[in-house]
Amino acid sequence: MPFSKSKTDDKSVNYHEIVEQSRETFRTGKTLPLEWRIGQLKQVLRMLTETSPEAVKALAKDLHRCKFETFAAEIDFLTEEIKHTLRNIKEWSATEKPTKPWMYLFDQVKIQKNPYGVVLVIGAWNYPIVLTLLPMVGAIAAGNCVIVKPSEIAAASAKYLYETIPKYFDTECCRVIKGGIAETTELLKERFDYIFYTGSSYVGKIVGAAAAKNLTPVTLELGGKNPLYVDNTVDMSMAAKRILWGKCFNVGQTCIAPDYMLCTPEVQNKFIKAAKKILHEWYGEKPYENPDLARIVSEKHFRRLVSYLNDKSQIAIGGDVIPAEYYISPTILVNVKPDDPIMQDEIFGPILPIINVNNAREAINFIRKYECPLALYIFSKSKEIQDQIIDQVSCGAVCVNDTLLQYTIETLPFGGIGHSGMGAYHGKYTFDTFTHKKGCVIRNYNKLGEHIEMLRFPPYSDQKLNLFRQVSKRKYFSILSSFKYSLYLFTFCLGVFATIGIDAAKKVLK
After folding, report:
1. Is the pLDDT of residue 477 over 90?
2. What own/partner pairs with CB < 8 Å and gap ≥ 24 does 60-67 have?
3. What angle do CA 26, 28, 30 make, to 5 degrees?
4. 509 class by beta-carbon count within 10 Å (0-12 exposed, 13-18 middle, 19+ buried)
5. How far apart are CA 200 and CA 416, in angstroms?
6. Rounded to the nearest 5 degrees, what angle is found at the Cα of 190, between the Cα atoms of 113 and 165?
7. 489-494: long-range contacts, CB 8 A cutoff, minimum separation 24
8. Cis peptide before 459 (omega within 30 of 0)
């Protein structure tokens, strides 16, 4: 039955009933046909086209986000991801025919692509549309039913998703839950077939623990303190622009924003000089009046960030705040110590602390003191330095001589490791995340094949064991390898036919 939006406004809403309704819908097989999945993906494209003005308004209200950033990071990015999925969904969902050992020559071996069932997607507030809809449409593309819980922190965007999704999606298969911590807590008590969460590592642990009670597989897209190493080989004018763009986009409220910078004092001085010029070019004398700078999402997050600015002697650039607007100017801090409060947690704001190191080796050792980050940024022209850091630092992804761009390439997996998350998505990886690959062996009653396999049946003997060990060696059959092993196959089959012929002759003579 279709899901009534008004039910989620009722404090007595029955989440168990909602999940079971979705499960019953899934069991009907409604979501399995490719035609249905493709139709739903096209509906998302229509939704993004027809309601983009409402999305822009919602994000302007939540984050003071400018139109450019909303289209670049959310609407257009999501649109292109969906188009990429539509171009490839038939290939991705097709049954795979892997290579197989010679002993299964007469049998069929395949990998069937199946959806998990009922998926829970818990969205994030910093990019509330794309981080909710992208995993949702991936789950639908894979043939699942989906229950979505947008973040209540971005209230206007959550309202937009809550009111808009039912107008375009099949409401028997795609349901939206509105609410906050209490509603999420109740949802996590239910048994889902897959859970996809984007947010903080703290809440990620709660989601993971709830999923473990039912052995539910999860993808956790979290965050961390993403390090940025800069050496003296770079073009500082270009490097500073790329670094500041990554830090100022959505005023640093990005899980892959550079969190802190490691460099020598010499590089630090060059960077600060270039940064002053660039920030003035971008935002003018009064950055708080510039429409291109977003705002901090809430008073709670604003107060946390302002607490990092207590030591005025550390502020090299910026440090201006307007409490009434949750405004913090792009800020660079120097003389930062590893035990300072700003170095204890992910910053998630427009503040970039700089810590001095003498070389890449010291930078690597410093980074390793923290949990594995979601992103690692290296600014150096030296391939030796690039390779050294990439090889020796464990992280979700790496971008060299730029920031954020690793997120935009759909052929790369996006995801963390350790405290920065588990699992990956984007492009085909999104489809695969919500797809169970079921291995299948389909045997027939071929007499020759059965005669070969008589070796596995009792009564056993040393002769049977020796033959069985030879037959069961991993020699795989495929078109490319068939010529290589054709002589072995011919010899083996000749021996089998000879055995059959001898047995038949014995029977005739009897």
Report:
1. no
2. 61/156, 62/125, 62/128, 62/154, 62/155, 62/156, 62/157, 62/297, 63/126, 63/154, 63/250, 63/253, 63/294, 63/295, 63/297, 64/293, 64/294, 64/295, 64/325, 65/250, 65/294, 66/291, 66/292, 66/294
3. 70
4. exposed
5. 12
6. 70
7. 489/102, 489/105, 492/102, 493/448
8. yes
Helix ranges (H only) for 28-75 are: 34-50, 52-63, 67-70
Contacts of 220 (CB under 8 A, 6+ apart): 197, 204, 207, 208, 416, 421, 422, 423
Which residue numbers are catalytic? Answer: 221, 255
pLDDT tens for 241-275 read 999 999 999 999 999 999 999 999 999 999 999 99
Q: What does the pLDDT read at residue 191? A: 97
Q: Which two tokens stand for residue 362?
A: 């010291």
* Ordered strands of the 218-221 beta sheet: 174-176, 145-149, 118-122, 194-198, 218-221, 421-422
Give the pLDDT score at 182. Answer: 92
Contact 148, 132 (CB under 8 A): yes
Cα end-to-end distance, the chain, whole Å:
71
Angstrom distance (rounded) from CA 401 to CA 379? 4
Q: Is the dihedral of CA 262, 264, 267, 272 positive or negative?
A: positive
Angle at 474 between CA 472 and CA 480, to 5 degrees: 130
Which tokens hold the place of 426?
């984007």
Average pLDDT over residues 111-134: 97
Q: What is the SS3 assignment for 321-365?
A: EEHHHCEECCEEECCCCCCCHHHCCCCCCCEEEEEECCCHHHHHH
**Which DSSP category does 3 fall into?**
P
- 185's tokens: 């807590």
What pLDDT shows up at residue 444?
85
Give me Rg for the CA atoms of the chain: 29
Give me 269's structure tokens: 């001085």
Whether the pLDDT of residue 6 is over 50: the answer is: no
46-100 tens-digit pLDDT: 999 999 999 999 999 999 999 999 999 999 999 999 999 999 999 999 999 998 8
